[in-house]
Design goal:
By secondary structure, the protein is α/β, with parallel strands linked by helices. The protein has 13 helices and 14 strands. Helix content is about 45%, strand content about 20%. A 5-stranded mixed barrel has the order 1-2-3-5-4. A 5-stranded parallel beta sheet has the order 7-6-8-9-10, sandwiched between helices.
Length: about 450
């Protein structure tokens, strides 16, 4: 017996199995997104389609997994039954059977794994060489004219970057250097693209990026050649590899690490709306300063205009000043003429008062007075000299030898051996008997011959 909706109201509210599975699938995919799950491989199947089907289990539970061909080709090892692995997957539901499962997008050995060991070894090596030093990183230009994007031309990365740059700054020129972002050719192509952008200076900044993925998917950006090409770049490099949780060697070497390609595009492009706001603000400031400058200039002009006199008023002021100067000049001329006339009259009176005849008479009287005074002084001087001469003559006469001779004395002398010069005899010891001597008296000379000399008697 089949009940209709009218007979059973609950039937109208019931969901179909397909609707339920579809809603559950949507809830699982939205709620969990992308997760990492570890476990042991069980029931691994590799059908001709190239997809992998297996279960992931631990000691208490298991879950079905599917890894499609496009993802399992990137796995860098060969998984086998019983391997402990780490998968990056999305939680989903197979609607046909209502099976809860994981859609695996990445796989690597559980634990550290060889890739992780290689990653840590290269990271330590490059860090010791200084490739990660902040002091060596170049600044990203605020408003570049050109941006070179090194990525896959068909991936979502380039579309995200173009979308962001067109929204934020449409004038920015995007130069795409297409490369493989995984696989055997990826390292060589990425390295060559970086060198090419630097050699020809294609842009002001470089973005190197790709979408998210497993460690294997991102491994091209963990290679030493790519790291050294980024470090050697003269152009600043922005790394946008994987999602925010992914970290690569390229991120550490790059001048700036963006968590997503969209964030990289926002880093290298200015916001046109912010620039327009800044421009509008600068324009308002310019208008304000221009208005202030015009106001100040107008105020100065008004001040100058108030200080500036009409030419007619200036001429009247000059005319009045010239009248004052003319009056002062006339007064000065009259005063000078009066003073000159007074001096003339004074000098005339003085001239007539002191005539030359009067002056000559005064000088003549002075000469006569000086002449008489000179004669008197001359007579007095002669009388004084005559008096002094008579005194000196008397003194000389008193001390003269002739006066002595007049009192009865005589001067005895004898000639020298040559009979020429006479020498006065002052001692009887200087003569002897037979010497010829002369005796000078007051009135003549007597020549005598010495008979003998008598020594002076001692008293």
């Amino acid at each position: 017996m089949t009940l209709t909706k009218s007979e059973n109201p609950a039937l109208s509210k019931a969901m179909s199995v397909s609707d339920l599975n579809r809603q559950v699938k949507r809830m699982l995919e939205v709620s969990y997104g992308q997760i990492w799950v570890s476990g042991e491989i069980s029931g691994l199947s590799r059908p001709g389609s190239g997809h992998w089907y297996f279960s992931l289990k631990d000691t208490k539970a298991q879950i079905r997994c599917a890894m499609f061909r496009g993802f399992n080709q990137r796995v860098r090892f060969q998984p086998k039954e019983g391997d402990l692995i780490l998968v990056r997957a999305k939680v989903s539901l197979y609607e046909g059977r209502g099976d809860y499962q994981l859609i695996v997008e990445g796989m690597e050995p559980a634990g550290l794994g060889q890739l992780q060991a290689d990653f840590d070894a290269l990271k330590l090596k490059l860090s010791l060489e200084g490739l990660f030093d902040d002091a060596k990183k170049k600044s990203i230009p605020n408003t570049p004219n050109k941006v070179a994007v090194i990525t896959s031309p068909s991936g979502a990365v380039i579309h995200d970057i173009i979308s962001v740059t067109q929204r934020r700054f449409p004038a920015l020129e995007i130069i795409v250097l297409p490369v493989s972002v995984q696989g055997d050719k990826a390292v060589a192509e990425i390295t060559h693209a970086i060198e090419l952008a630097n050699k020809h200076q294609l842009a002001d900044v470089i973005i190197v990026g790709r979408g998210g993925g497993s460690l294997e998917d991102l491994w091209a950006f963990n290679e030493e050649a790519v790291a050294r090409a980024i470090f050697a770049s003269s152009l600043p490099v922005v790394s946008a590899v994987g999602h925010e949780v992914d970290f690569t060697i390229a991120d550490l070497v790059a001048d700036y690490r963006a968590p997503t390609p969209s964030a990289a595009a926002e880093k290298v492009t200015p916001d046109q709306f912010e620039l327009m706001q800044q421009l509008d603000q600068q324009q308002r400031r310019l208008h304000y300063f221009m208005a202030m400058r015009l106001q100040n200039t107008n105020d100065n002009l008004l001040n100058i205009r108030r200080r500036l006199k009409h030419p007619g008023e200036t001429l009247n002021d000059k005319k009045a000043y010239m009248a004052v100067l003319f009056s002062r000049l006339n007064l000065a001329i009259k005063s000078s003429l009066t003073l000159a006339q007074h001096r003339y009259e004074t000098d005339t009176q003085a001239f007539f008062k002191f005539t030359p005849s009067h002056e000559i008479q005064q000088k003549s009287q002075a000469v006569s007075y000086l002449y008489e005074k000179l004669l008197n002084k001359q007579n007095n001087l002669l009388e004084s000299q005559q008096y002094r001469l008579s005194i000196a003559a008397q003194t000389l006469n008193t001390a003269s030898p002739l006066a002595t001779l007049g009192r009865g004395y005589a001067i005895l002398a004898k000639k020298d051996k040559n009979g020429k010069d006479k020498k006065v005899i002052t001692s009887s010891k200087k003569i002897k008997a037979g010497d010829q001597i002369s005796a000078t008296l007051q009135d003549g000379v007597i020549h005598c011959t010495v008979e003998h000399s008598v020594p002076k008697l001692e008293l």
